[in-house]
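Supplementary Methods S3. Complex input for the fe (iii) ion-bound model.
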Amino acid sequence: MKFADLHLHTHFSDGTFSPEELARRAREAGLDVIALTDHDTLDGCPRMRDACAAEGLGFVPGTELTADTAGQEVHVLGYWVDDTSPALKSELERFQRVRHSRIEEMVARLNSHGVPLRAEAVFEIAQCNSPGRPHLARALVEGGFANDFDHAFDRFLKKGRAAWVPKARMKSADAIRLIHDAGGAAVLAHPGLYRNDGIIPRLAAEGLDGLECWHTKHSAEASANYARIASELTLVPTGGSDCHGMAKGQPLVGRVRLPLECVEALQARRPAGAAMVS
Ligand code: AMP
Ligand code: FE
Ligand code: FE
Ligand code: ZN
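Predicted complex, serialized as structure tokens:
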């Protein structure tokens, strides 16, 4: 049997691994195919493709978009999207600009609460076009304003805390259309984290292709529940570890092992005429 991990991050967004280190660890974990799904960017895909080739792994290019469905924040994974698609490129760039201003806004809030952090310190740590709260958490730890990563979230960055600023979202229907128009397949990430399964049929009606049934934050019961829902709604069941490198303790790559048949079934859901890239 061959296995895939379809949800992975690198330092091109809020993961800590380079593409090369991630590919090496994926091979060591016994995986055959991996996808890169950095938040709001495809920047890491060319290097990840080369790194996978060097390790003898199959590669699926992807990204993780932030969307809204019925007032709920959801993450939509787009796989095999064409990184030259002008519409996708301009949307990703718009979201990256919003991420930068969100960091500036969060830093301003910290400053007004007596934490003298500079936005530049966060951008220096992030060193990518898709900065997010994890980079701010690292800056707070380095600056001595929090004991560790989780403490930074607990103290300042969690929803409702002093520095929290809501994240921009696109409409879920727009996210799915954007992915399809770029030749990709759209998958709802970690449905178990939303605690609202009622959104899944809505997203399916909007054209969703797959459901991330297996995820490191899903219990065995939750995974079985989502596999049943996927089957009922004719969504392809998928899975991934959502590894962020060392950002959250131990690396998760390979903790979820998706049979390759599911990757092939997902690939078959791409819009007709989409180029068959691997
Ligand atoms: P952002 O995209 O800037 O909203 O940041 C989201 C990232 O922060 C995701 O990778 C989450 O896993 C991480 N995150 C969100 N909440 C927490 C938390 N309470 N503790 C640790 N990490 C968190
Ligand atoms: Fe993340
Ligand atoms: Fe996510
Ligand atoms: Zn993720």
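The radius of gyration is 18 Å. The chain has a mean pLDDT of 96.
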